[in-house]
Amino acid sequence: MTGGGIRSKRCLWAGEAPLVLASKSESRRALMTSAGLHAEIVAANIDERALERRFFTDGGSPEDLAAVLAEAKALAVSALRPEAYCLGADQTLTLGSTVMHKPRDFDEAAQSLAMLSGRTHRLISAFCVARSGASLVIDADCADLHMRTLDRQAIAAYLDLAGPLVLSSVGAYRIEGLGVNLFDRVEGDFATILGIPMFKLLAWLRRQHLVAL
Question: In the annotation, is 90 catalytic?
């Protein structure tokens, strides 16, 4: 690369404008970087729980919530960076008709794991790309995860080993780390479980000629 600096050989972004990730999630940043997409990070400043309450009051379904939140994040950052391609992403965990959130403390984490124990729950990951204040694409994918049956002693031991990081994970597990020990099986791709449906995102980027591979 000539001019402004040296471009990494692994950077596949081919857009004429920057790519911005509207999230401070380390797992999402890592997914993008591993795929050769080195995005700027600009966290979206939105009230997710207020948007969720309004969405359900208006009759929205749990299956569509992640897409609504992903779009809100993308548009919020697009208002700040209108020239950029702004990628918003969000993930929801549903257990039947119940939407679960990140635990506020270890007591809530233990309660979440007890609810999920021995049952199958669904993670829905969605993304939206926005530019100049308009949504260009919204899409989502899901994965089903079956957790082992865990007694109180096993839950306490896991939380003690995993530490405070579990409080940043919806469902109080981090399957990319020690949390993998809690599961019997999963159905779905790992990127969707970690927070971005990468196959769908990359397919759209290729159609728009925004990646160089």
Answer: yes
Q: What is the Cα–Cα distance from 188 to 166, expressed in whole angstroms?
A: 22
Amino acid at 32: M
CATH topology classification for 19-206: Maf protein (3.90.950)
Angle at 140 between CA 46 and CA 195, to 5 degrees: 65
For every one of its 213 residues, what pLDDT tens digit does the chain have, with 9 covering 90 and above? 333 334 456 799 999 999 999 998 999 999 999 999 999 999 999 999 999 999 999 999 999 999 999 999 999 999 999 999 999 999 999 999 899 999 999 999 999 999 999 999 999 999 999 999 999 999 999 999 999 999 999 999 999 999 999 998 899 998 999 999 999 999 999 999 999 999 999 999 999 999 999
- Active-site hit among 47, 64, 90, 105: 90
Q: What is the pTM of this model?
A: 0.91
Give domain limits for the chain: 19-206
